[in-house]
Amino acid sequence: MDQNFINKGFTDVTNVSIKEELLNVQKLIYSNTKKYLVEHKENLSAEDKVNLNFKEIPSQEVWSDLMKTVNTSNELKNLINSEGIKFTFKKIFKSPQPFEISTFRARFPNQERVLYSWHQDEGTWFLSKNNNHVNKYPATLWLSINGATKEDSIQLVKFSHNEKLYDHKFIKEQGYFSIGKKKNINSDKIFTVETNSSECFIFHPLILHRSVPVTKISLRPRYTVDIRYYD
Question: Which of 43, 57, 139, 196 sits a CA distance of 20 to 30 A from 99?
């Protein structure tokens, strides 16, 4: 098993072999956002198209429609169940099986609903009453569709998966996520992820992580997929 996953709580960033599946998801995203993007040439690559800025800050409705379209698409389903994804999960699992919940995420400019404070994913599954979730302990593969920078990525706290479950409180429209404002995070252990398109890493269900807080508004979107498998 990957020693970084065991020791730190997450693997190194690596490329995943999903060229065709990723291309189809990029095309789907572009077809549903192109009318909101800055003027551009149609002969750009799919990767360049999903990195274009919006003309202006999109509405909540635009974000909701895109989330629904991609999350219910065959393109996303094929990516999640691709041989490239399964092969990558073999870094940590002998027999990786898809978990019920995998989610496409779009981080739009000024979109508060996509920003999550410090939390552990296992707190969500632990509180679930769904028998398909209980005792599965899924790991998450965080896949970058169009690249992520230190300004719009996620952060993880090294070694935090070795500690107890934190205090998870219910946040409207998000679930049980918060660890509480009084909990101190050791800043020396915070790792900020940077990726190119098609790169990923896998993190432990107990690792503390969050969205990078917004310091300035950028009109560039960031697209990722949380892909969960268990052994």
Answer: 196
